[in-house]
Each structure stands twice: as C-alpha cells, then as structure tokens.
Design brief:
single chain; 322 residues; five-stranded mixed β-sheet; globular; alpha/beta; 9 helices; Metallo-beta-lactamase, Chain A; seven-stranded mixed β-sheet
C-alpha cells in the first residue's frame, strides 16, 4: 500500500480547493476527489459536501470547507455518489461532527448499513499499480445506521436546488451522478474518470484524460456503458469526476462522446472477472458473483520469492564450503 500512501501524502500537501463552477469547488484527497457545493461565505447549513474521500481525510475536508465557506462551515447534507472506501472514507466522522444526514441511492444502502459487502475487486484488469493493489482494498460494508437515507425518488438532490441525481450504475449498483441542466454542470462520480485511475503514474501526475470507470472495481460493464452513453447525451459543459482533474468545454463533450461510442474497446477490459458476466445485486446487496479469473501475479511473486530464497541458500552454502 506504499503507492497509496505516497499519493495521499502528495495530495495532502495541497489543502486549497479549486472552482469547477462559481458554486462548486473541487478538492483532491489522496487518489480521489470530493466536491463542495455552495457559494463562498455561504451561511452555515446552506452548502453540501459531495463524497468524503479516503479514510483520514476528514481534517483536510474541514479545513477546505472553512477556507471556502468560512470558519462557521457546516453543511446541510452529505451526498454520496456511491459507497466505495475511497468515497466514504470520512463520512462517519464528518456526519457525526456536523450532525447531518448522508444520502445515497437506495441500491447503495446495503453497503452503507452493514448488510452486504461489494463484489470482490478484480486486480487482473486495467494494468498499473493501483489496479494490482485492488486485491487489498476494503470492500465494506460500513454501517452508518440512521445517518444514511435514500435519495428522494423524484430525482431532486437535498440541499442542491436546480440539480437532479441520475442513476448511473455499472461501477456499483446504486451509483449516481449529479447534473444541473441550467448550466450543464456534472458531478460524475466514478461513472467515468478524468485520468487513467488504474495507473499510479497517471494518478500522481493527474494527467487529464477521459477514461471509463475504474476497471478494478466495476462489476457490470453493460450497465457502465449505458451510464456513459446517458451522460454523454447530456453534453455537459463542465464535469467533476471522482478521479482526475475537472474537465470542461468542447474537449469534455467530444471526449465523452468518443468514450460512449468506443466504450467496448477503450474501457472494457479484454478479459476479467466481470467482463462476460456481471455481479448480480438488489436492494439487499450482492446476490451472486462470477468466479475469479486466473491471476498470475501471486504465482509470479511466489516464484520470485522462491528464487530469491534459493539464491540466498546457495550463496550461504558456498560461503560455508570455503
């Protein structure tokens, strides 16, 4: 996990948030982004936090909120795009400190109320260090109890007038994105990303590229394709994603449409646990997952370890014979 710690330390060196829109600020915490919705200097209780970053990010988020909103900063709610560990890592700490509810899609509640773990990640897809490390990532569940509530069925977003939530499953069963039609501003969560999230190099440099959802955690590729197609049809003018820098303008529109057109070969892995068969889930959580695919890395590491051990034994035997 040294790679994650290095990325976290580099991101933590930057405490200031940056504007995506006049009332939407972006803050990077480790490998993931969070968003603060509200005007600078907004009264306490009149802004919203979207996602809560990695575990241990609460202090950084609080500092950013105090800088962006004011020392009185307290939101009206926390909105969760989904419940993966890097998006809900600080939700309990922040919800209890601020005494506010968290909202998520009803299909996401099993992973936030202790009822079900997510499907196992697939470390064989995507390539790169962060993909390989996925075998060690937490997959929950966490239990927020009554702190977490379902998003309103009418599509409105608590505390965010003019915005609507869009069900964008695939990465997780209850994944949502947030969209404001008035100025076509999008908070996409992990429906797609602004950098190649599987690559530690891309994450460290924050190289801006439009990619599909993080492959190692996506358990339904058909649903993920439909979600990207739905978001591309909105033609957003600016977008904040869960990973990577904010995107905007014609580059965003063209890049997202290209991703939607070519999703099968540009985003879907050639092989992997969920490529041919998705995980199946409902309101109770995960029902069925396909069997794992062959993963050469553990055998490779075992072979390297045995080789090093054999070399050390031979070397020691050679010294003893002299």
């Amino acid at each position: 996990m040294d790679v994650l710690q290095k990325i976290q330390a580099k991101a933590d060196a930057r405490t200031r948030s940056h504007l995506v829109a006049p009332d939407l600020a972006h803050l990077r915490t480790g490998i993931v982004n969070v968003y603060l919705y509200g005007q600078r200097g907004a009264p306490s209780g009149s802004w919203v936090l979207i996602d809560t970053g990695m575990p241990g990010s609460a202090a950084k988020i609080i500092r950013a909120a105090e800088e962006h909103i004011g020392p009185w900063a307290r939101p009206s709610a926390i909105i969760l795009t989904h419940g993966h560990f890097d998006h809900v890592g600080s939700v309990r700490t922040l919800a209890e400190r601020w005494d506010v509810p968290a909202y998520a899609h009803r299909l996401e509640l099993p992973y936030l109320t202790g009822r079900s773990s997510y499907p196992p990640p697939d470390p064989t897809v995507g390539g790169g260090a962060l993909a390989a490390l996925a075998r060690f990532y937490p997959r929950g569940p966490i239990d927020l109890g009554r702190r977490v509530q379902p998003l309103p069925e009418d599509g409105s977003v608590p505390g965010m007038p003019g915005w609507r939530w869009i069900h964008t499953p695939g990465h997780t069963p209850g994944h949502v994105s947030l969209f404001r039609d008035e100025d076509r501003t999008l908070v996409a969560g992990d429906a797609f990303t602004g950098t190649k999230q599987e690559s530690a190099t891309a994450v460290l440099t924050q190289r801006a590229e439009i990619h599909g959802p993080p492959a190692y955690y996506t358990s339904d590729w058909e649903a993920a394709r439909r979600s990207v197609q739905e978001l591309a049809a909105l033609e957003p003018l600016r977008a904040g994603t869960g990973h990577g820098p904010p995107l905007e303008g014609s580059t965003l529109i063209a890049g997202l449409k290209e991703l939607a057109r070519n999703f099968d070969w540009s985003a879907v892995p050639l092989r992997g646990r969920y490529v041919r068969r998705p995980a199946i889930a409902d309101e109770s959580g995960v029902i069925q997952v396909p069997p794992p695919v062959s993963d050469p890395l553990p055998r490779l590491l075992l072979g390297v370890g045995l080789g090093l051990l054999a070399s050390a034994v031979v070397k020691r035997a050679g010294h003893q014979s002299h």
